Amino acid sequence: MYKLEHVGKVFADGTVAVHNVTLDIQAGECVAVIGPSGAGKTTLFRLLNATLLPTSGCLWFDGANLVSLSGRHLRRLRRGIGTVYQQHNLVLQLRVIHNVLAGRLGRWSLPKALFSLVSPQERGLALRALEQVGIPEKLYTRTAHLSGGQQQRVAIARALVQDPDVILADEPVSSVDPTLGRTILELLLHLAETHHKTLVANLHAVSFALDLFPRVIGFRQGSVVFDLPSAAVDDATMADLYAGTATTPVLSEST
Amino acid sequence: MSLRKFKAQTWHAWPPPEAPHWNLGALLAMLVVGGALAASWHIAEIEPSLLFGEQGRRHIGAFLTGLFPPDLSLPFLRLLIVPTIETMQIAITGTVLAIMVGFPLGLLATDRLWFAGIIYEMEGEASGWRRKVRYSVYLMARMLLNLCRSIPDVVWALMFVRVVGLGPFPGVLAIGVSYGGMLGKIYAEILENSHEGPIEALHAAGVGKFGLLVYGFLPQACTSLVSYSLYRWECAIRSAAILGLVGAGGLGQQLEISMRMFQYHETSTILIIVFVLVTAVDHLSSWVRKAL
Prior knowledge:
The complex is a heterodimer. By secondary structure, chain A is of the alpha/beta class. Chain A is built from nine helices and ten strands. By secondary structure, chain B is mostly helical. Chain B has 13 helices and no strands.
């Protein structure tokens, strides 16, 4: 699904955010990316969902080289990648249904998109997505009135409606409490499994990664430190990943 | 007991803050402002004795006593009905025209829709010339907006009176153009202040620019856009009343006639009507803004 070869990203101000990353992610895999904050995980995700252009290396998604695409082709490719963000990134002024249906916008014509704001299109689709994330009763609620956890569910529903091949989840549970975080992650994994999606999640809580994901990638200072099956990750590996950083692995969140 | 002790300790633990140094910047600013004021006093030929001297006092007195009582006689009020409606119409049509001018120009003048921000992160070197084209369109829109609003509405009205003749129409055009310039600039600013997160999310899902505008920028900006447009409508009523002074119809024309004829009690009636109109629109628009 993804193939990265020596991918690097240097920002205009000279900051090296991602350095020489080589990765292979197969279709249907569920992968967790962990590492101290400031390791460049979010930048990596922005490279993966084609909102940032790598400054070096090659990045293939589904056989297409991201670096060489532009305009319409790039937009079509982005449709195949659904992203769930830490801050949900919903339009709070709109009703839930419009935020969910926003996942369809990449496929809709402009008149249809406009008309949908007046009279929502494909309501059934939006309702089914909300049912899968467990809040069908919020279909017509104004998004600003939802709690953080509910907003994250709406964001997941938006990704479902988009029907992508890959779901990227960038710190999806950092802004909700740990119990809810686990529930939301289990939901994501369950959805990925039932819909045969690839799932790549960037996690702050190490325990979630080790408990729930079969494959774990350790990321530090813009580079891959380890890439192991979660069973093979031991204390020494973890200590190495977080050595010398102010953050310590968050282990106690899985209560 | 320990609190007082703690306070005493902290007092000794840290040295008292140093007395501030002379703030040279502030001093310089004061000198510049003071100098500018003194110079303009001289250049603007300010002569308080003209205003408060014997003759000035007499004129002020005549004017003020002339204002009272306002002429509320039925024939005069009946005469004012049509100009009042005309003023309202100039303000409403002018504001609608201003929105029609300002909205498209405002979109063209929003940098995040054309070359800045997350939407254009992936833009490679290859599309350099396209970026330049979009950037020049953006600059032209900005310049056009600046031109529209840097010329006062009264001057626009004078020009349009020359072009289309006397009456309310030049007033509508004047408000449309000058207010269009103001609206367009503020629209662009409001749109540029939208949160980037939702825009990034839609963009990353393969949504095109129109989708981003309709589902990302506009819903976030909607309340501010409407309430600023309403505020401008309020201002347009005042402008519409003034524009008549240069021949663009409405209450202003009556105002000018009454002042020229020294009929100050008629002047005060017209001023009262303008005041009532502006207050009414103020209440109406604040009610609408609350309902949003």
